[in-house]
Design a protein that fits this description.
Elements lengths: L8 E8 L2 E9 L4 E6 L11 H9 L2 E6 L18 H11 L5 E6 L2 H11 L4 E7 L15 H29 L1 H14 L2 H8 L1 H15 L5 H9 L14 E6 L7 H10 L3 E6 L6 H4 L1 H17 L4
Parallel strand pairs: 3-4, 3-5, 5-6, 6-7, 7-8
Antiparallel strand pairs: 1-2, 2-4
Helix pairs in contact: 2-3, 4-8, 5-6, 5-7
Length: about 300
């Protein structure tokens, strides 16, 4: 296992009502800002090492956030996906960020779209990596992990918090076996994800994120499932910010057709299919993905839209 550097800055921001949101910063402290929203499960350090290095080299400020109930973020139940945008806006204001890009991996995808919808004057471009699609309402599509999620959501609404506390207690004592556990998950995953999780830098990143985010609390994944099973609070077609979407055509968790469905609904979107890749494929291409989003930012600036 390789060593992994700590974030340059790490802490939490008060977002009202006695709540806080945890964050971790990588890359340049003065560059263009990118908010990175982790998957389900995940936490603020779920950012590939290559991306952190690119941020330093290319003057990009990368900010990972804990969602409520993991890491340094206070547990909280959002009424819908859109409500997260208010918390991110408060974090952005506190950290002195005006305009920014936002990236959402898997379960972070809906929140990235919600932030783009809520703040089109501040979000320059949004990127989604194998994102969850709406499960209810006029934008819904069936199949995938959220079929089970919709079934479990009523139970998790009350049982998610105690289950999360049990999981967190296991994580706190599981440090010696956490590495082998990630390896076991990889062996049970499709070939593309298995290969990625065998790379030392990605295994180190996931292990660091798990041990630092999950040892305090692990309620966020269950809260995500509950809120994904509701109306998101906005229509996907009303997201006017440019969106770039990456999806593996062998994704075993969020079907590729879900990405196609959401991109079709978005008025300004482009989809990049990753041949042979599964659910984690976007992390392996994260440097190229960040480069694409910065190119869109440059284009928006050149056209006078920013």
């Amino acid at each position: 296992m390789i060593d992994i550097e700590r974030p340059k800055i790490e802490g939490s921001v008060a977002v009202g009502e006695g709540r806080r949101i945890g964050f971790a910063e990588f890359g340049s402290a003065t560059g263009r800002a990118v908010f990175w929203l982790h998957g389900t499960p995940g936490a603020r350090r779920q950012i590939p090492i290559e991306v952190r290095d690119l941020g330093e080299a290319e003057n990009i400020r990368i900010i990972g956030l804990d969602r409520p109930g993991v890491g340094s973020s206070t547990p909280y139940s959002y009424p819908n996906v859109l409500a997260f945008a208010d918390d991110l806006a408060t974090v952005a204001d506190t950290l002195g960020v005006d305009e920014f890009a936002v990236i959402g991996l898997s379960g972070g995808g809906p929140y990235a779209l919600g932030v783009a919808h809520a703040m089109p004057d501040r979000v320059v471009v949004a990127g989604v990596l194998g994102g969850v699609a709406p499960a209810v309402g006029p934008d819904a599509i069936g199949g995938g992990a959220m079929e089970l999620g919709k079934f479990l959501a009523p139970l998790l609404q009350t049982a998610g918090a105690p289950i999360g506390r049990v999981v967190s207690s296991v994580v706190r004592v599981a440090r010696p076996v956490a590495g082998p556990a990630i390896g076991l998950y990889g062996r049970l995953s499709p070939a593309a994800d298995r290969e990625l999780l065998q790379r030392p830098e990605f295994k180190a990143m996931f292990l660091d994120d798990l041990l630092n985010g999950g040892r305090r609390q692990m309620e966020a994944p269950f809260a995500d499932v509950v809120v994904f099973a509701r109306d998101w609070g906005f229509s996907v077609g009303d997201v006017t910010v440019p969106v770039r979407w990456w999806h593996g055509d062998h994704d075993h968790i969020i079907p590729h057709k879900h990405g196609e469905h959401v991109v079709h609904l978005l008025p300004d979107a482009k989809m990049f299919t990753m041949p042979g890749e599964s659910h984690l494929g976007g992390l392996g291409l994260a440097v190229d993905i960040l480069g694409e989003l910065m190119a869109v930012w440059d284009s928006e600036t050149a056209l006078g839209k920013r």
